[in-house]
């Protein structure tokens, strides 16, 4: 069978390949034997590969020195042995104790699991250590006030009214039968199938550990974290726990395929037709717009936009620097005369982080990737490794700016409500700050940053 080279095939064909591969990989197999492409989280014999944690911010223990984390894991095992056991190839919890937690931390993944409840069961699966995909007895009337009657599979700890909190359909099997769950997670975006029915469709899993802060001030989910099996008062059994890690190309395809209605391409992949500005400083190669080395300036769409969302993929060279010109007036400086510039920067490079590095630049937080340049900082640490393509969506509505990078919301702000005293420069430096309609473009800064798959949706 010829191997498919998905990196060079059209997007639709790639997605078709993925669906075919997934259907093959889900063929029935012996219990605790992983399908092709998956690894078994549970070996069917013992608790190797697991430790115990409670509902606690995974950032705290992932930041521990390795020896301290090892001590925490070892200390948890006494509790785990008291409340978890292996019986007939099944993980069994008595309803008490710490949550079974994977040793390994995962980024983007596809998870398969089977579970069986007793009457009154209440459990869940934590994703990257964050609650939770709900599992509970949907016939337990004492929990109807919490939504149990809607069934399992929802992202129960999401804020009220947000997508994913309640399952789209009721899909639970009767108590005492095995339920099969599938979870697909890219960034903060989660889809859940329960017994082959879609119950959560690409919804954002919110950061439970920051839930008392205003939404715009919450940290994104961790980029990686463990899978946890929750205990909650009644026996719960698990088996057939399998996980497949998802690479960046597949993750970008998934992100680009969802909620795409209304987006229109503004780049044909062949030339700069429909673009204006300093086009002589850019070239089109391999389907992407690339700033020429040691060149720069602003290129921009001939069309203008008021409120809009833009989706694109970009690839950074080491220490690469560029920017998205938002509502650029068509003349003047792409940074200062636009409504804003959203930074595009390899902000993890030693040049911006290591004082001993050659040409060290002490980066201000408001200059990090996706920041409203010099005014509002974005959360850092969510870029893919240098040389890989990133997927980003930016939404501009009035004075509000939202950036979702690789599935993580890393910036959400109303620029008009930010104290100008926190800006890097005096307010009058930002001459275009009240521009409500303009062009979309790129502000090149001498580095060969690449952009492709550029699509814009008008919101007004």
Question: How would you describe what is shown here?
Answer:
With 460 residues, the protein is mainly β. 10% of the residues lie in helices and 34% in strands. The chain has helices at 11-25, 58-62, 66-83, 248-257; strands spanning 39-40, 50-53, 84-87, 90-93, 99-102, 109-117, 122-127, 130-136, 178-186, 189-194, 197-204, 228-229, 236-245, 264-265, 275-277, 282-285, 288-291, 296-305, 308-315, 321-328, 340-345, 390-397, 400-405, 408-414, 438-445, 450-458. The strands form 4 sheets. Strands 1, 3, 4, 6, 9, 10, 11 and 13 form an 8-stranded antiparallel beta sheet that branches. Strands 14, 16, 17, 19, 22, 23, 24 and 26 form an 8-stranded antiparallel beta sheet that branches. The protein has a 5-stranded antiparallel beta sheet with strand order 2-5-12-7-8. Helix 1 (11-25) packs across helix 4. It is elongated. Mean pLDDT is 93; it is low at 1-28.
Percentage of residues assigned to helices: 10-25%
Order of helices and strands: HEEHHEEEEEEEEEEEHEEEEEEEEEEEEE
Query: CATH first level of the largest domain: which class?
Result: Mainly Beta
Q: How many strands in all?
A: 26
Q: How many angstroms separate the termini?
A: 49 Å
């Amino acid at each position: 069978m010829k191997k498919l080279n998905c990196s060079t095939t059209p997007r639709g064909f790639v997605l078709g390949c993925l669906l075919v591969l997934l259907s093959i990989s889900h063929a029935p197999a012996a219990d605790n034997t992983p399908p092709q492409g998956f690894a078994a989280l549970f070996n069917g014999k013992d608790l190797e590969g697991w430790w115990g944690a409670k509902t606690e911010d995974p950032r705290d223990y992932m930041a521990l020195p390795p020896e301290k984390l090892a001590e925490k894991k070892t200390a948890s095992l006494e509790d785990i042995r008291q409340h978890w056991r292996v019986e007939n190839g099944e993980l069994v919890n008595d309803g008490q104790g710490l949550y079974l937690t994977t040793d390994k931390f995962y980024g983007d993944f596809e998870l398969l699991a089977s579970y069986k409840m007793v009457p009154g069961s209440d459990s869940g699966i934590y994703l990257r250590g964050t609650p939770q995909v709900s599992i509970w007895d949907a016939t337990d009337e004492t929990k109807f006030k919490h939504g149990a009657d809607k069934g399992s599979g929802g992202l129960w700890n999401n804020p009220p009214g947000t997508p994913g909190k309640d399952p789209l359909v009721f899909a639970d099997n009767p108590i005492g039968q095995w339920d099969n769950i599938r979870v697909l997670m890219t960034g903060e975006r989660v889809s859940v199938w329960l017994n082959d029915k879609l119950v959560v469709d690409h919804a954002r899993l919110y950061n439970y550990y920051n839930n008392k802060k205003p939404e715009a001030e919450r940290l994104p989910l961790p980029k990686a974290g463990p899978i946890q099996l929750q205990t909650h008062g009644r026996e719960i059994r698990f088996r057939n726990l399998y996980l497949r890690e998802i690479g960046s190309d597949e993750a970008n395809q998934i992100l680009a395929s969802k909620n795409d209605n209304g987006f229109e391409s503004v780049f044909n992949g062949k030339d700069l037709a429909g673009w204006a500005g300093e086009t002589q400083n850019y070239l089109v190669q391999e389907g992407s717009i690339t700033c020429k080395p040691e060149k720069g300036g602003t290129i921009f769409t001939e069309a203008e936009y008021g409120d809009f969302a833009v989706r694109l993929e970009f690839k950074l060279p080491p220490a690469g620097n560029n920017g998205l010109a938002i509502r650029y007036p068509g003349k003047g400086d792409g940074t200062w005369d636009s409504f804003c510039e959203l930074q595009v920067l390899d902000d993890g490079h030693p040049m911006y982080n290591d004082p001993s590095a050659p040409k060290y630049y002490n980066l201000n937080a408001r200059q990090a990737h996706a920041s409203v340049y010099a005014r509002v900082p974005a959360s850092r640490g969510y870029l893919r490794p240098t040389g890989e393509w990133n997927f980003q969506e930016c939404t501009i509505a009035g004075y509000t700016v939202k950036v979702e990078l690789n599935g993580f919301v890393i910036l959400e702000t109303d620029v008009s409500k930010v104290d100008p005293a926190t800006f890097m420069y005096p307010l009058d430096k930002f001459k275009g700050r009240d521009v409500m309609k303009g062009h979309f473009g790129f502000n090149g800064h001498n580095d060969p940053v690449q952009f492709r798959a550029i699509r814009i949706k008008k919101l007004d």
